User: Which sequence fits this backbone?
């Protein structure tokens, strides 16, 4: 009888996936093709996680697809790299979802569920080799359907897919509380943390107001400077026009009064005219 450790260290997603597949392979060394097996006796520190495994021939997967637990894989999907048989391992992380997955400024409202495909024909040296099950078409019927049960739709709810490289993507939830996927991976449903979003939005609004205020102040200052320059230019043109008009008319002398230069005309006295020559 083989004994397996009751406690293993699975600190990240990759190690968790490896542990689950290793336990599935050891507990079910020769699974029958097309039959679903539950993976029992997981380590004690992984209690609450549900896992199952099914082995399929590639020809059957291509012809019929498969519908199991929370996933529906459509027909005409081939594993890459190609292999004659695949082991599809399903897992539901349950209350341990937040220990391994999360989205900034969002809260998980459904457990993280997922599936990965492995090469069943890989030898001991390639044990645990992953293969990809990617859809080929863009139509809705060509996608993998991920179903979430017992969730209540709320405003802002999104599907999230966690990729093996640590990235994630958000998409819309369908009317049937399902998500559409283009390949294997881990999935859940999230809602925004509105309190954090409101605080961040308030900071952005405050910064935006400061920026707008500075811009408006600069524009008003520029308009004032331009107005003063235009006023002085108009006044200067009027003075020039007056000088030109004075040059075309009678020449006038100029005198200085204090610091001001002013025009002056020389006085001309008109001699009196006697109306008659009678002298008494």
Assistant:
């Amino acid at each position: 009888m083989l004994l397996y450790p009751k406690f293993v260290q699975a600190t990240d997603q990759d190690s968790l996936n490896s542990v689950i597949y290793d336990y599935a392979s050891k507990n079910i060394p020769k699974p029958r093709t097309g039959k679903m097996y539950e993976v029992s006796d997981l380590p004690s520190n992984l209690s609450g996680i549900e896992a199952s495994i099914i082995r399929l021939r590639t020809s059957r997967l291509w012809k019929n697809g498969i519908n199991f637990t929370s996933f529906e894989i459509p027909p005409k999907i081939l594993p890459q790299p190609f292999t004659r048989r695949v082991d599809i391992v399903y897992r539901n992380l349950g209350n341990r979802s937040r220990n391994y997955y999360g989205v900034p400024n969002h809260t998980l409202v459904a457990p993280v569920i997922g599936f990965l495909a492995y090469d069943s024909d890989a030898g001991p040296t390639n044990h645990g080799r992953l293969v990809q099950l990617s859809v080929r078409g863009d139509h809705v019927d060509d996608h993998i359907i991920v179903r979430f049960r017992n969730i209540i739709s709320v405003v802002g709810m999104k599907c999230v897919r966690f990729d093996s490289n640590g990235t994630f993507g958000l998409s819309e939830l369908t009317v049937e509380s399902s998500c559409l996927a283009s390949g294997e991976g881990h999935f859940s449903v999230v809602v925004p943390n509105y309190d954090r979003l409101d605080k961040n939005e308030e900071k952005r609004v405050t910064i935006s107001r400061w920026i707008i205020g500075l811009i408006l102040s600069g524009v008003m200052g520029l308009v004032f400077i331009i107005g003063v320059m235009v006023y002085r230019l108009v006044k200067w043109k009027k003075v020039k026009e007056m000088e030109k008009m004075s040059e075309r008319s009678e020449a006038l002398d100029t005198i200085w009064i204090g610091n001001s230069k002013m025009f002056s005309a020389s006085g001309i006295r008109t001699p009196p005219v006697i109306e008659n020559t009678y002298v008494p």
